Amino acid sequence: MSSAEINSSSTTIAPLKIGSRDKSVGWYTPTLENITEAQRDLLESYSHIAPNRVIPHILEVRDRAWEIHPYPCIGQLRFIDLAISRSPSYPIVLQRLKEGASLLDLGCCFAQDLRKLVHDGAPSENLWGAELKGDFLELGYDLFRDRETLHAHFMEADIFDTEGPLKQLEGKMDFVEIGLFLHLFDLAGQTKACERIVTLMKPQKGVLILGQQIGSLEAGSIELSSGSKMYKHNVETFEKMWKEVGEKSGTEWKVSASMDTGLGINQEQRTWDDPKSRRLVFEVERTS
């Protein structure tokens, strides 16, 4: 997106300059006072970055990324958010990966969650990362300093390209993570993306999709100045979408979803956004 004017039925928000490298925008966080214990452990113990260099290193890589793709997720340093480790099923996912299961991080950005899995003992050979912007994959190697040691499989891929690199994974994944990804599309696009994700999963009960995205207390479409639309779910509409996906694909899925004030919403960092925005966290398990 180059710029976006977000309108909803109840709120009109001033034009956004998403795509601008202007660092005065609300989604560019100029400093980083502290990081979590898990983030520090990953960068010190896995990436072997000196303690006094961790935060400067993060900011330096972020500013390089900002010059390439100045998206809100980059400005707000979401690429160090180890979201997968907070998922309720994380211990199960980790154990099964150790036993040979496979996981795809779809829209992986810097693939920070894959690094967390490896640091916690998952074999990197069992991990896949797909990202539309290949620059992010390269920056991930620079951030985590593991170009020579990480054996995860990365690809530059478009979820809607049925003949693209993702085709090789059809029917092979035990787990798919989709973080801050689905909300980029309108409802039809999200449904289509989820149908494609189903084709990447092993055709059996128990395969699991997990992740997070921006949702809303009042679900609905948001029109962008480009003329495209994105859709923010609440729990009910997210469940309804997966029911439709199941009907179209001949499968059934159990949705466990909730909304909270993560992603800076609780700190009122998203001043450009609709005040009804919330983080939607989910796990979607195939039941038949």
TrEMBL record:
InterPro entries: Meroterpenoid_MTases (IPR051654), SAM-dependent_MTases_sf (IPR029063). Keywords: Methyltransferase, S-adenosyl-L-methionine, Transferase. SUPFAM superfamilies: S-adenosyl-L-methionine-dependent methyltransferases (SSF53335). Pathway: Secondary metabolite biosynthesis. One of its GO terms (biological process) is methylation. It comes from the Eukaryota. The keyword Methyltransferase applies. The keyword Transferase applies. One of its GO terms (molecular function) is methyltransferase activity. PANTHER family: METHYLTRANSFERASE AUSD (PTHR35897:SF1). Belongs to the class I-like SAM-binding methyltransferase superfamily. This is Methyltransferase. It comes from Lachnellula hyalina. The lineage of its organism: Eukaryota, Fungi, Dikarya, Ascomycota, Pezizomycotina. The gene is ausD.
